[in-house]
Design goal:
Shape: globular
Radius of gyration: 13 Å
CATH superfamily: Response regulator
Strand content: 15-25%
CATH topology: Rossmann fold
Number of helices: 4
Length: 124
């Protein structure tokens, strides 16, 4: 798990406020710095700020909004994009690096792997 010196910044977006709050608590408890955004306007505003290592797209966001968020994030941040899905039948998000179930355990594991890969590359 990360510690304070990693300074991993995560942007988490969702249209479901309860899930957004729960995800923030879980990620902060794991030691990550989290910025949560609810709704399209706030999400795009945060994407434009840049400086995020990981972008977590909640499954409650409509596909057209996800596309807009991904495009904005990509213009401003070099970080990875994780799209949380409701199931295999859900439309893939163009530009997302990862697509996983929204359960906390796989999300935390994936973020830890991303952080480890990023740190390994920066040491090389």
């Amino acid at each position: 798990m990360p510690n304070a010196e990693h300074n991993v910044r995560i942007l988490s977006v969702s249209y479901d406020e309860l899930l957004l709050k729960m995800r923030r608590m879980i990620l902060e408890n794991a030691g990550y710095a989290v910025v949560s955004a609810h709704g399209l306007e706030k999400s795009l505003e945060e994407c434009n700020k840049g400086d995020f290592d990981v972008f977590v797209l909640g499954h409650s966001i409509p596909s057209r909004d996800k596309r807009q968020m991904v495009e904005t994030f990509r213009r401003n941040c070099p970080g990875c994009i994780i799209s949380l899905t409701r199931g295999a039948s859900e439309q893939r998000v163009e530009g997302a690096d990862y697509r996983i179930d929204p359960d906390p355990e796989p999300l935390l594991k994936l973020i830890a792997e991303i952080v480890q890969k990023t740190e390994s590359r920066s040491k090389a």
